[in-house]
Structure formats: structure tokens, C-alpha cells
Amino acid sequence: MGKITGAEKQDELPEKVRLLYNAVLQLFEEGTDLADITVSSITGKAGIGKGTAYDYFDSKEELVACALLYVMTQMTEKLLKMLETKENFGEQMACLLDWVEKSFFERNCLNRFLHLLTDNSSIGQLLRQKVDAKEIEQHMPMMLFQRLLKKAASDGEVRTDISLEYMAYTIYSRLAGYVTFLYIEKQEREKREKMRMLVYQGIMKEFAVEG
Amino acid sequence: MGKITGAEKQDELPEKVRLLYNAVLQLFEEGTDLADITVSSITGKAGIGKGTAYDYFDSKEELVACALLYVMTQMTEKLLKMLETKENFGEQMACLLDWVEKSFFERNCLNRFLHLLTDNSSIGQLLRQKVDAKEIEQHMPMMLFQRLLKKAASDGEVRTDISLEYMAYTIYSRLAGYVTFLYIEKQEREKREKMRMLVYQGIMKEFAVEG
Amino acid sequence: MGKITGAEKQDELPEKVRLLYNAVLQLFEEGTDLADITVSSITGKAGIGKGTAYDYFDSKEELVACALLYVMTQMTEKLLKMLETKENFGEQMACLLDWVEKSFFERNCLNRFLHLLTDNSSIGQLLRQKVDAKEIEQHMPMMLFQRLLKKAASDGEVRTDISLEYMAYTIYSRLAGYVTFLYIEKQEREKREKMRMLVYQGIMKEFAVEG
Amino acid sequence: MGKITGAEKQDELPEKVRLLYNAVLQLFEEGTDLADITVSSITGKAGIGKGTAYDYFDSKEELVACALLYVMTQMTEKLLKMLETKENFGEQMACLLDWVEKSFFERNCLNRFLHLLTDNSSIGQLLRQKVDAKEIEQHMPMMLFQRLLKKAASDGEVRTDISLEYMAYTIYSRLAGYVTFLYIEKQEREKREKMRMLVYQGIMKEFAVEG
DNA sequence: AATGAATGAGTTTTCATTCAT
DNA sequence: TATGAATGAAAACTCATTCAT
User: Fold this and answer.
1) CA-CA distance, B196 to B102, in Å (whole number)?
2) Could you tell me if residue D107 is left (phi over 0), alpha (psi between -120 and 50 degrees) or otherwise beta?
3) What is the pLDDT of residues C112-155, one digit of tens each?
4) Chain B within 8 Å of A113 (Cβ-Cβ)?
5) Can you tell me the mean pLDDT for C74-78?
6) Where do runs of H (alpha helix) occur along chain D?
């Protein structure tokens, strides 16, 4: 009766909802555009009845936004764990660039999510609303960057005279810019590697201590 | 009946096509999401028959992609002219940031266009294809930045030891990042101004020659 | 572009609208309940595309209400013409009773319309709204009765010391009551004829001059 | 598992069935249209499981028809008791008119039931079938009127030279006509009172003995 | 006996595209 | 060349009914 809001914890999710979320993720990974995702395609992939989706969500928009929120959260959690195994800030940034590139080519959607953060569609708007809910906020990309930076700052790896928020946005920007570059110049391997190195150096020069 | 491809020069455009392009621009400026733009709404705003659109374009996607291409071209041309009146690279960057912010608040669409560059919808893909056509390339944002940078380099205002392409992408990235910031933190004026200054300084520190 | 409102004159009706109206009438005559009428069944019977219905009407409800209004108007006009050929008030009442009975058995819907006047469904409500529009009012059953009574009064056939409105409602009531009787006792011919005579006499005794 | 047929006596009704019946009544009193009543809304209001309804009834239609039959029976029983406290036929008729008007404005459903007697929906048809079952017949409106009239006739208050059945239908008709009048002219209080008086006088003049 | 999660057929509605005029 | 009436495939969503628990 109470509908899913997207604030549920992972272990609170009903089985069918998990199936729906996975179906949305798969569609995303297949490159299906947001506007072309239909309730039929989701429930079909999930292997459940169309009506069931409406037992848990009020509308297609709610369903997709919640699914994306869930996947983003999962993804950033995994990413965070991975980053935490790195020795220092530089390695973390290198790892992030790898991840972004891998994500781009495997379509596993980081770029799609970054994109959604500035999407004007009803689903994009709904997603931003849900992200605004405090509890979830902490897993969002920008917060992830801030967390990395805070740790690095206390370890004396990055400068402390620049606002954390600005540094987070700048890292986000450079990654998003790199994704755009990939969209346009994906074909040439050499160029790609050169650009990646430049982005890496750009971040390090601007924020890292020493050189 | 050769259809419109988007490669036409401004003065080659049939009157009806111009009307259609303007209609798409208006819809965009009204904030209509890409997915919610219909052929009816376009031809209605253009004041011409629905069938006429199909005399010039093979599909709605073609029509919208061509219109966006045209508008982007127009916009960057206008922007370029404006930037060329500026004394130096620093002023140009400040002007760009103003423009981005104004564009964001007046919905005059620069952010929408930047967004489209990494959009997976059929229209977005078509648009990128068209951008790839050499003749148009020169008017696209990245090329605009490269042109500015080339001039600035020859005037000794920016460093010459960094790849032009990287510098262009970095400027693009920082602007796109600033737009994302505006999406998320638009409400607070002070924060906004501080962030804009930081972005400006970030660009200048990385690329400008001395002070 | 301007949608049909139900206030159109007969010769202003587009061909397709006429087809839709006829389809609704046929469905009604087949005894289909209001709630079971679907847009598919209407356009199917009309032999036109489903979308066409929405070119002319904003919703199924609008379509059905307009169709019923049209049919009621047509029916009462025909009935009025028929009644005007009668010599006097008594013959008119006898004719009305015949008509009601015939209508009941041939399902040509007078009873359905009378019924709709007190129906709580969204279509019933819409219909009453449309009936309230002045121009149409004159053709509705109650107005028809009032017109007959006015003529009869000026011819000295009915009493002039009773309010016209009351007389109209009473005639309406007795007819509706007779329909209810038919619903419940339709099987027995003799009983039916006896009841019809009683209804006739009831009207005449109450309103006719002399005896 | 013999299902409920609607012929059960009040004290034979399982608790759950009573809950279902009450839920239907409440929905009706809230003005919900027959077509908008759902099994969910009924069982929800009844506070029992959806499946339980199907343990007792074969279909939604059966459930609603039985519920309405029950409520009508209850209502007419109550009404009859109330009428039996009246001194004479005239007071009974006045009381009936009060009841009808009160029922109309409080939505307590007499008008809805009268309406159902000539309704073509599957529920309406089912209801009439059930009314036809002899045991129940005695509680239906028409029978109620006949009972009143029989008593009044034996008390010398109404004429004995007119068929009881005709008188019953006429009273029913006039009440139904008054309801129609209320639907159309509910707003004006004065007109309403005048009409009610005329209806009352109409009945008395036609059927009452002397004055 | 009682439940309510799950279903999917069926409904209303939209809109890109066609084609007779 | 230009039109816009007509189409129908496909979408979102509802709800009576079933059935495993």
C-alpha cells in the first residue's frame, strides 16, 4: 500500500522492486534513452506483470527515478570502496579517470548519471528532488569527491587554502569534460590517453601539495 | 526533393525552414523538454502546415536536430563576435562566465545545448553526427574556445606549452561544471559569485601567462 | 482545431462527427450500458480511426455527452413535429404514450435519455451541463411538454389555473413511471394496456378542461 | 461454498458480508458513481481482504447488487415503520415527500435506488432480477406503496375504485418526477416548496376520498 | 477461512506520419 | 507547393480476479 519513495535501504527492498531496478539498469546499460524507456520494457525485462510496477510506484517517472537513484547510490558506494583502497590522492584520481573511461565504454552508466544531473526531463527533475533528500545526499558524486578531498587534506596531500566545494566541482567538471571528449573523440586511442594524462595533471597541479 | 541536411548556409534557407527553426528555438527557450516537443507544437508556432515540415525533413528528429544545429551555430557566432570585442583573454573568460550564467537564468539555452552534446536520445545522436560534418564543426563550442585560445596564444596571453585541444576541453569542462553547480545551488547568490570567481581564477592560473 | 461543444447546428456537423454520433446511437439502441461504451467500440462502429474522435472531442465523455445531446434534440424535434399533427391535447397525450411504449420495446432510447437526466455518472453530469446551455434547452423533454401545454391552454383544452411547470413535470413523471412499469411488468400485454389507459386518464382528469 | 445470493435474511448474514454491504452503502452515500465503485474501494472501506469478497460472491456485480438489495430492503423497512406512525394517508404522503427531499440533499440514496430500477448497467439488471425473486419483492418501493394504499383503502381514506397497482405506480412516478425536478431546479427554495405542495395535492386529489 | 501480492487484458489518450485536396 | 484531416500503433495506467500462503 505505501509506495516506494527511493529512500528505502537496500535490504528493505521487496524482491519485485529489486527486479524492476535491475531491469532499468540493464536498459540503461544497453544504451536505451530515458525517453524511450517504457513500463512494458521494464516489466518485460524484469519478468513481472505490468500492473506490479504500479503496486510499488505511482508512475513510470517515480519508478525510473527511484531505480536510477538506487543504482547511483550503489555505484558510488562501490566506487568509494575501491577508492579507499588507494594509497594516496593521486592514485585515487587516476583510478577515477580509469573508472570514467571504463564506464564510458562499458556503458555502465556513470556518464548517463552525470548527465541526468542537468537533465530537464520530468525524470531528471524528480531525480534531483530525491537527491536533495538529506539521507541520500551523502552518496552522490559531489559528496564522494568532497569526502576524498577531506581525507586527502587531512593527510596533507591536497591544498587546504581552497574551498572543498570548489575543488569537488572542479573534479566533477574535469571528469564530465573528459566524458564529453570521449563522446566526440572516442575513436583515437592515443589522443585519448594524452587527454587523460592532461586532465590528471590538471587536477594535481591545481590541488595537490608540492609537485 | 532534396531534403534539408543542416549543412545549408543561412542565406540558402527556405523561408519555411527558417520559421520552423525559430519555432524550435522558442520552444526551447520556453523550457520545453526535448521529449515533449511535438511536430504539432513546432508547426503550430511556426504558423505553417504540419505536412510542410515533411516536405523539408524526413522526420521529426531530423527537423529538431537541424534546428538545434542552426541555433547553436547562430548562438556561437553571436558569442564569438561579442568575445572579439574584448581586450584580452581574461576579459573573454569573464564574459563567457557571465554569458553562461545569464543563459542559465534566462533559459536561453546554452546549457541545454551543452547538455545535448552528451545526450543519448536519437535527436542528440543525430545532432552529434551533424556536428561531425566538417563544415559545421568550426562553429561548435569547442572550436570557438580553440579559436579564442589560438588568438590569445599568438598575443602571448596564454601558455603555448599546453595542447590547444586540452585547453579548450578544460574551459568547456569548467563552464559545464559551473552550470551543474547552478542547477544544484542556484538559490544562493553569494555562493554563486564566489564559485564564479574561483572558476575564473582556475582557468587563468592554469592557462594564462603570468599576471 | 476548435473542438465540438454540442452547440453546433445539424448542418454544421463535420461528416466524421455525424458518423460518431450515429455510432453512439446504435450502441445505445443495442442496449449497451453507458459504462460499457468504449472509444474503440464507437470509432469501430463509425468506421473511422480512433484518433479521429480525439480530433473533434477532448475526451470520451465529451464525445458521448455531445452525441446524446444531439440524438435527444433530434428525437424531440421529430416527436414535436409528430405531436403537432394531432388535433387536440388528448390525442397528443395518447400519441406520447404510444411513442414511449414503442421507444421502450424498440430500444430507441427515450427511456435511456429520461434516465440520463438523473444519472450521476460523469457523462450524465456533462450532459446536464450542456442541456443547461440556453440554446439547446428548448428541445429538451420538459420544454417540449411546456410547449404542448401552452398551446393546449390557449386552445382552451387544459386548465389555466395550474402552473405550466408543474403540469410539465407531472406529465414527465407519469411517462417515466410508465416506463418503470414496463421495465418490471413488460411481459403482460393486457396489464400494460390497462395501465396505459389509467395513465392517460390520470393526465386528462388532472389537467384537461371539462371531462 | 454456497455463495451469497441476496435472499439471505438479515440475521443469516456472515459478519464479513455485513461489512461489505455497509461499505457499499457508505460509498453510495459519498456519491460515488456505480461505475466508479471498485472492489478495492469496497474491501478497503470494509477493512477486509480483497480475496474474502470472492469467497462470498462470484463477482463484483453480484456483490454490489446484493448490497444494494440489502440496503434498499433496510431502507424501505425503516421508511415503512416511520410511515406507520402517521395518522392518515395524507400525512404519510407528506412524510414521503419530506423523505425524498431529505434523501436527495443528504445523498442518502433513495434517489440513487429509484434510479437503479431503470438502469441498464449489468448491476442494475442483476438487481432487478433479484428484486423479481418473490421473497424480496414485498420490501420494494412499489410494494411499500401498495401496502400503504391497502391500509388507507380499508380505512376509507383513498378511493377503492382505482387499481391499487396504478395508484402505487402513480405515487412512485410523482416522487421520481419530484426528484428529477430537484436535479434540475435544486437551487431555488421557494420554487421547490411550491412544487412539493403541488405534487402532494396532485396525489391527494387523484386518490384521496373527499377532503 | 482470510489475505493481498501479482497479474494482464483492456481502457483512454497521444502523436509522428501520410496523402487527398 | 502547401495543407491539415485522418490514421493507428504504441504508450501509461486501472482493476477484476486468482492463488500461494
Assistant:
1) 12
2) left
3) 777 887 888 899 989 888 887 756 666 677 888 999 999 999 99
4) no
5) 86
6) 15-29, 39-46, 50-56, 60-84, 89-105, 110-116, 122-132, 134-137, 141-154, 164-185, 189-207
Cell numbers describing residue A174: 574535469
With H, G, I as helix, E, B as strand and everything else as coil, classify residue C95: helix
CA closest to C34 among chain D residues:
D121
C-alpha span between D26 and D28 (Å, rounded)? 5
Number of H-type helices and E-type strands within chain A: 11, 0
Contact criterion met (CB below 8 Å) for D181 and C169:
yes
**Which CATH number is C10-207 given?**
1.10.357.10
Question: What's the whole-number mean pLDDT along residues D99-119?
Answer: 80
pLDDT tier, B74 (very low <50, low <70, confident <90, very high otherwise): confident
Whether B146 and B158 have beta carbons less than 8 Å apart is answered as no
More confidently predicted of A125 and D2:
A125
Give, in Å, how far the C1' of E5 lies from the CA of A82.
38
Cell numbers that stand for C71 in this block: 440524438
Residue D6: pLDDT band with limits 50, 70, 90: confident
Q: What pLDDT, in 10s, does the model give residues A17-38?
A: 999 999 999 998 888 999 999 9
Of the candidates B151, B209, B203, B147, the one whose C-alpha atom is nearest the C-alpha of residue B177 is B203
Where are chain C's structural domains? 10-207
Q: Is D13 helix (H, G, I), strand (E, B) or coil?
A: coil
Question: What burial letters (b/e) apply to B39-78, b meaning 16+ CB within 10 Å?
Answer: bebbbebbebeeebbbebbeebbbbbbbbbbbbbbebbee
Taking a contact as any Cβ pair under 8 Å apart, which residues of chain D between 150 and 169 contact chain C?
A: 162-163, 165-166, 169
Q: Render pLDDT for A166-177 as a digit per residue (tens, 0 to 9).
A: 999 999 899 988
Q: Which of C20, C12, C139 is nearest to C81 (CA)?
A: C139
Between CA A49 and C1' E6 the distance (Å) reads 7
Residues 23-62 of B with CB under 8 A from A: 31, 33-35
CB burial of residue A13 (10 Å; 0-12, 13-18, 19+): middle
Locus of grid cell 406503496: D145
- Do A and C have ≥3 inter-chain CB pairs under 8 A? no
Instruction: Specify whether the CB–CB gap between B139 and B77 falls below 8 A.
Output: yes
C-chain residues near D167 (CB < 8 A): none
Answer whether B183's CB lies under 8 Å from B116's CB.
no
Residues 6+ apart with CB under 8 A from A9: none
Contact criterion met (CB < 8 Å) for D198 and C163: yes
Q: pLDDT tens digits for B101-123?
A: 988 887 767 777 778 877 888 99
